[in-house]
Write a structure and sequence with these properties.
GO terms for molecular function: nucleosome binding. By secondary structure, the chain is of the alpha+beta class. It is built from 4 helices and 5 strands, in the order E-E-E-E-E-H-H-H-H.
Length: 122
């Protein structure tokens, strides 16, 4: 089991920080808080932790408007809209694409006369 949280700065050859024994079970998810310097962590054991990192260690967070502008410039307007617009899985993306397609035309049925001949007059 890997119960370790490590934070990397891309331009550095080593991790900025490695936190061991923070959790008893695997780390499930990490997310930066809105302040840009608090890393929130949760574990399979049900516990959560907040790791405070000083801005001089990772850089000053961009204001939201500037962050959106840079994301839009790099990846297009959809990326700047945020993670809420991202598909959760490839299967979901395929389902959404299929739902956007018009339905195929109904099969044509050959014109046929009545299946039962009309009754003959007495």
């Amino acid at each position: 089991q890997d119960c370790v949280v490590s934070v990397w700065v891309t331009c550095q050859p080593k991790a900025l920080v490695v936190v061991r024994d923070l959790f008893k079970e695997d780390v499930l998810d990490l997310s930066w808080a809105a302040d840009g310097s608090t890393l929130l962590c949760c574990s399979m054991d049900g516990s959560v932790a907040a790791i405070q990192i000083e801005p001089h260690e990772v850089g000053t967070p961009l204001p939201p408007a500037e962050q959106a502008a840079r994301l839009s410039q790099l990846y297009g307007a959809a990326a700047a809209a945020g993670a809420a617009d991202l598909p959760l899985s490839a299967d979901l993306l395929a389902l959404e694409a299929a739902a956007a397609q018009p339905p195929p035309p109904a099969p044509r049925r050959a014109a046929a006369g009545p299946a039962v001949p009309p009754p003959t007059p007495p």
